[in-house]
Amino acid sequence: xxxxxxxxxxxxxxxxxxxxxxxxxxAQGLSLNMSRGNPCKEQLELSVSMLDVxxxxxxxxxxxxxxxxxxxxxxxxxxxxxxxxxxxxxxDEVIIFGNSSLNAMFWTVQTAxxxxxxxxxxxxxxxxxKFLCPVPGYDRHFKVTEFFxxxxxxxxxxxxxxxxxxxxxxxxKDESIKGIWCVPQYSNPDGISYSDDTVRRFASLKxxxxxxxxxxxxxxxxxxLTDSPKYIxxxxxxxxxxxxxxxxxxxxxxxxxxxxxxxVAVMGASRENVEALKKFLGISIISYDKMNQLRHVKFFxxxxxxxxxxxxxxxxxxxxFRLVCDKLSKExxxxxxxxxxxxxxxYFVSFNALSGCAKRIVKLCSEAGVTLxxxxxxxxxxxxxxxxxxxxxxxxxxxxxxxKAMDLFTICVKLASAEKLLGEK
Amino acid sequence: xxxxxxxxxxxxxxxxxxxxxxxxxxAQGLSLNMSRGNPCKEQLELSVSMLDVxxxxxxxxxxxxxxxxxxxxxxxxxxxxxxxxxxxxxxDEVIIFGNSSLNAMFWTVQTAxxxxxxxxxxxxxxxxxKFLCPVPGYDRHFKVTEFFxxxxxxxxxxxxxxxxxxxxxxxxKDESIKGIWCVPQYSNPDGISYSDDTVRRFASLKxxxxxxxxxxxxxxxxxxLTDSPKYIxxxxxxxxxxxxxxxxxxxxxxxxxxxxxxxVAVMGASRENVEALKKFLGISIISYDKMNQLRHVKFFxxxxxxxxxxxxxxxxxxxxFRLVCDKLSKExxxxxxxxxxxxxxxYFVSFNALSGCAKRIVKLCSEAGVTLxxxxxxxxxxxxxxxxxxxxxxxxxxxxxxxKAMDLFTICVKLASAEKLLGEK
Lengths: 425, 425
Known about the structure:
The structure is a homodimer. By secondary structure, chain A is α/β, with parallel strands linked by helices. Chain A has two domains: about 5-45 and about 305-420, Aspartate Aminotransferase, domain 1, CATH 3.90.1150; about 60-300, Aspartate Aminotransferase, domain 2 (3-Layer(aba) Sandwich), CATH 3.40.640.10. The first copy, chain A, is built from 13 helices and 13 strands. In chain A, the strands form three sheets. Chain A has an eight-stranded mixed sheet with strand order 2-9-8-7-6-3-4-5, sandwiched between helices. A three-stranded antiparallel sheet of chain A has the order 10-11-13, covered by helices on one side. In chain A, strands 1-12 form a two-stranded parallel ribbon. Chain A is globular and about 75 Å long. The first copy, chain A, starts with 7 loop residues before the first helix and ends with a helix. Chains A and B meet through helix 4, helix 5, helix 9 and helix 10 of A and helix 4, helix 5, helix 9 and helix 10 of B.
């Protein structure tokens, strides 16, 4: 029965039942963390043999450079090849960074702030800089733009990606809009993959600001949860078709392919963008960790093998996503007190509670020992205007723990929803 | 005979002899690089067994965190212990960074630009920001300040370190002076270690700008070239004694201890500075490479072992420094056409030619196949006002190559000096 159709007495009884079960959980003294998209131990084990690749004593890159020494600022050639295949660009359209694509994005925004974009006025010299932020989105993107004092404008997501009508309208008329954050495949947190039409419209954007850039964080480009994955269109290819290839910066990493703290990050863009950025790269660093680049290349050998490797990840984590969605379908769907995505890839399940309930649910879970991503985190400035989105990260806990956490979560959703409908909270 | 005391005929004959020998060299088609302070292959081999430390399958930090995953933004505890010992601070006075101390310095300046220092006005909001730059100095320091549009003021070096009278006078009266670049031990390129008096005067500085910071790049803290090394005074300890502990940011790395591209960088500062900086650290990165941190800790085990390890480096490179200084003593000293340091540590020999000769010497060497650091590079904006300083980096070439390179170098010094005295160039 839909909760909104219950009588007050039925609701009170439902609330009491939920509260009683909640208190039982609380007494168990759980301590589980579902706050971040961390791979689990079994996933980390998949790449451990990568640490043996230098047993052959060969540290020389294919261009003859010893990767243990300084040099090769933008990456060794074989890493450029492998990771350009991964993000769908040519090997002279990439820069290989350190262990963090977030750091590469931060650096790119910062460079625009200090030096502009292809000769434009440095963003730091402008009175106002704005970014479009599809919501819900990735909290760490928003923190970067917030750090630089960039005004963030929420853009609603649809099943096909961000609202392109609104984006086209805004960028055409407002020259202070300099960028947009996108996670185009298996978006964080909704798990939405942008439709072909959405990608083409992004590729064809004609912003008033010539230094507008799409920050295309393709973090989950090969992070599928099904055997028949759908790939999004290649935005750089589409942009080239319409002579707009400077519009996009593409990012990716192996953080959720090999090791979250010790992977390799990559950026792809038009040759003109890459050449311009490379001029500033050497100011902040002499070279990135090329040993780790070669370690990855020796381990994977080819992009095909990398995709095979991802099937092993899928085998470990797909059952966890299934469990989350099954629990929600069974416990929440019949009550009409929440909506969610059933993602085909990525790292999250995005749950939308009744309006005004997200913070309460996260707090209830926390008080019973299960840490979720903070409510509001998926919105700029941490403010979810409807207080309803909660990002669930199923990958890290063992499946037994995840089951307990989801049992608790569904009870908290029920309790908070009943309280809300009763006008109590 | 001193070249300046020669008659014109003697000079002409000297010049012709040097030119003839120079042309012989040119005909050999050399191709040697002495431009950067790169360790040589034998040095890189010293740390290769570090790659086996995870054969035990143990990836757990002493606080129970799996270093392969996200987290531990400011470093794992055992790395904090090891590297705080290295730079002489307590283990809660450090941040462990990625593979590059330059990157840590860049980030620190950038954070001051965007967020100020302990609540001060962000440097980016000020009309003018200036840095003091002891010269000759490290080119990459100067590139960082130049990137941010910081005006750089040359400070002469003395045998005890930078001219402290001048520094004290300038910082006391000019609030726009926000920092100074220092390489206090075995300075780059002079190899000068700051005297106790210099360190104490730095520690006691009372700048007009409350957000003035000493960027204390202790890159060569244990990089000795003698068996009885002298350590400089600990600046943070000295600053604490006079209640001035927020004045300094200390940097170091293992780039020239383990691997230049795959080492670990560290920053040390007062707890107040460290806590303030940590608030911003997580904006630009989720975590640094903790696997590499643990790799280093497992390999070294203690700071004492690290110092033992440095003796192996010394055994490889000290003979190269000796060769450089011997060649200069034999070929240049009697002619009075150059001065240099005989460093007790670090990575460079700083050679001062006759005024107006440095560019010519570097060009002559380059045209005969030996690449040196560009003349002027050791000064802000690449401008050596006297055009006399040349940084020699002896570590990388095999000693046979180094001998050839130094033979060529001394010939080029002779040729350029004779040309100069003849009024030809």
